[in-house]
Specification:
This protein is an alpha+beta fold. It has two helices and twelve strands, in the order ββαββββββαββββ.
Length: about 170
């Protein structure tokens, strides 16, 4: 039987520096899981395909000019398609759209497209949407911050919004 100690298998105790980093990272993730945030889908239309992912790291930046920021991890499906000037859609999801959120949180989403066509790639019947143009990409740590100017906005049916809190989906409103 292989003895497991920390992250190491059979090789003795976990090095102190690695253990401290793992504990710090776990505490950071746990603390941030207690921050309730809205759930959105960021999407780019490239040729005939839509590339999208679920994002909870979304914030308004400015009213003049109207702009927003999303934070994308290094493996984000849309990242290879983003450059200044590229159009993207941001859909703020409704509470009954958990399935769409889960699908696009996956690296390889499968299922029917929830996106409107034509126009900006936004999810049908989301509570609100933003059509944007990428203005700037900033690399910070292991993430890319995408600052975009809003070119159009709209709202969908009036119903509760989808939120993410303590590693699970919830409804608000």
């Amino acid at each position: 039987m292989v003895k497991r100690v920390g992250r190491h298998v059979g090789g003795g105790p976990e090095p102190e520096e690695e253990r401290a980093r793992r504990e710090r990272d776990d505490a950071y993730r746990d603390a941030l899981s207690r921050w309730a945030s809205g759930v959105s889908i960021v999407a780019v239309r490239e040729g005939g395909s839509v590339h999208a992912l679920t994002v909870s790291a979304f914030i308004p930046v400015s009213l003049d000019p109207p702009s927003v920021l999303v934070s994308l991890g290094p493996n984000a499906a849309v990242l290879p398609f983003l450059d200044p000037g590229v159009a993207l859609g941001i859909s703020l999801l409704a509470a009954d759209q958990k399935g769409v959120a889960s699908r696009y949180a996956d690296t390889f989403p499968v299922g029917p497209s929830p996106f409107r066509d034509p126009g900006p790639p936004v999810v049908r019947d989301c509570v609100a949407w933003l059509a944007c143009e990428v203005q700037e990409l900033l690399r910070r740590g292991d993430h890319t911050l995408v600052i975009s100017r809003i070119t159009a906005a709209g709202t969908g049916p009036d119903r509760p919004a989808l939120t993410y809190f303590r590693r699970g989906y919830h409804s608000v409103g």
